[in-house]
Design a protein that fits this description.
Blueprint (H helix, E strand, L loop, with lengths): L2 E6 L7 E2 L5 E4 L17 E6 L4 E6 L6 E2 L2 E2 L5 E4 L5 E4 L2 E9 L7 E2 L7 E8 L2 E7 L27 H7 L4 E4 L3 E5 L8 E6 L14 H17 L8 E6 L9 E5 L10 H8 L3 E3 H11 L16 E2 L6 E2 L2 H8 L8
Antiparallel strand pairs: 1-2, 1-10, 3-4, 4-5, 5-8, 6-7, 6-9, 9-10, 11-13, 12-13, 14-15, 15-16, 16-18, 17-18, 17-19, 20-21
The chain binds a DNA duplex (10 and 10 nucleotides) through loops.
Length: 335
DNA sequence: GTTCTAGAAC
DNA sequence: GTTCTAGAAC
């Protein structure tokens, strides 16, 4: 059975179990060890849905509770998904959620020194962390003790895949002090790279004017990667971001416009690169310049369901295989 | 994000 | 009958 756990990023205390569809109130108190008077005793109401893979978070206290950098608002509700960070109050007390299949969640804890039994270390984003076995607790909502296996390898949710790939030297095409470039694991065209900042930026929503230099550097890095491939002069490229990416960690797509790839399989793939769901890098930069942040229409995901239309001649196609056949017409003929 | 597959579409 | 999509599971 799948369980959901609320994990303190600081490792201040053991994970708190969020039973499926049960309402759990969290705030100042012995369970969280939060003593901050700005935090209400019932600051947030949490309701996990293990089937849907998220936790509904309702702000009950007056002071702001936020997810990543977005305030939920008094009496308002937001979905907390794996990979996102919940700040209980005033951007403090960070938590994340983890779904796991057993009663023994695999949790990465930073301050394993607190733990009595040290476990095998695992490589993770922030360098070496250790997973730890916690002392046994009888209470049902407390992280239970491990029984048999000696090594707990922390399971990573699929949406954290980029964070793993960008750290892997075998995946890196280029890197400097600010960014790293990797090939997309499932390229949707002959050339498909991702430019990622080392700085952990969860989503486009957290971008502010202080990120402008970085965004411009990401774009310039993408241009350089394209230039390095001198044999692709006939290929055009687009640089942009998905409005609502599946993978955590902001990444700039640098993709050739042939869309000749066996990994391009469905309508969602196609529309994510050929409709306004694909936010042009320069437009994102301009948006941050002019408005201080990036805003995305609420119903932007509807674009993923749009009819299949050729990005060059705009002709509509009825199926993905037909579209892929049609695209060949636009490929430059080889000399 | 991908994979798998039921059932819709042809 | 086969092809293809879309939603669940991962």
């Amino acid at each position: 059975m799948i369980g959901c756990w609320l994990v303190s990023k600081d490792g201040k205390h053991e994970p708190i179990r969020l039973p499926h569809t049960e309402t759990v109130l969290i705030g100042r108190g012995p369970e969280t060890l939060i003593t901050d008077r700005k935090c209400s005793r019932n600051q947030v109401q949490l309701k996990a849905d293990c089937n849907k893979g998220y936790v509904k978070v309702k702000q009950i206290g007056t002071n702001p509770t936020s997810i990543d950098s977005e305030d939920i608002g008094n009496e308002q509700e937001m979905k907390l998904k794996p990979g996102q960070t919940l700040y209980i109050v005033n951007n403090l007390y960070p938590y994340f959620i983890e779904f796991c299949e057993s009663q023994e969640p695999d949790i990465k804890m930073k301050n394993s020194e607190k733990s009595s039994l040290k476990r095998a270390s695992v490589n993770s984003l922030n360098g070496s962390m250790e997973t730890s076995k916690k002392s046994a607790k009888k209470e049902s909502n407390i992280f239970p003790s491990s029984t048999s296996h000696l090594t707990i390898m922390a399971k990573t949710h699929w949406n954290q895949g980029l964070k793993v790939s960008m750290q892997d030297p075998t995946m890196q095409v280029f890197k400097d002090d600010r960014v790293v470039v990797i090939k997309d694991k499932y390229p949707k065209a002959r050339y498909h790279w991702l430019v990622l900042p080392w700085e952990s930026i969860a989503t486009l929503k957290v971008l502010r004017t202080e990120h402008l230099d970085l965004l411009q550097h990401m774009h310039a890095t993408g241009e350089n990667i394209v230039k390095e491939h001198a044999n692709i002069k006939l290929t055009s490229f687009r640089f942009g971001y998905h409005a609502i990416p599946s993978m955590s960690h902001v990444h700039l797509h640098v993709i050739s416009q042939d869309f000749d790839s066996s990994c391009l399989k469905n309508k969602k793939h196609w529309n994510s690169f050929t409709t306004e769901y694909f936010l042009e890098s320069q437009d994102v930069i301009e948006m941050v310049k002019n408005h201080g942040r990036v805003t995305v229409k609420d119903d932007i995901s509807e674009l993923l369901k749009s009819p299949l239309r050729c990005h060059i001649c705009k002709q509509q196609q009825s199926t993905v295989p037909q579209l892929k056949e049609h695209l060949k017409k636009h490929w430059p003929s080889k000399q």
